Automatic annotation (TrEMBL):
<protein>
    <recommendedName>
        <fullName>Major facilitator superfamily (MFS) profile domain-containing protein</fullName>
    </recommendedName>
</protein>
<feature type="transmembrane region" description="Helical">
    <location>
        <begin position="7"/>
        <end position="29"/>
    </location>
</feature>
<keyword id="KW-0812">Transmembrane</keyword>
<keyword id="KW-1133">Transmembrane helix</keyword>
<feature type="transmembrane region" description="Helical">
    <location>
        <begin position="35"/>
        <end position="57"/>
    </location>
</feature>
<keyword id="KW-0472">Membrane</keyword>
Amino acid sequence: MIPVFLLRLLLIFGVSLLVFAPITGYIAYNYGRSFWRWFALGLLLPFFSVFIALFVAMRERSAEDQAGRQNPPRR
């Protein structure tokens, strides 16, 4: 018989996989990254992967803004 505590822990982990993995993939896909690669990362690191994907997206956006400021469009 499985203890109730272990059953609850497995349920929480399973739900987090179903929630965080697709969110991570969606964030990455919106910034031009591979959905399935980031989905797999979301399966391996359910909670932290969302923050990693957001960090990568914000860093990429910042680099694009920096490049845009250095090379303004010609008129």
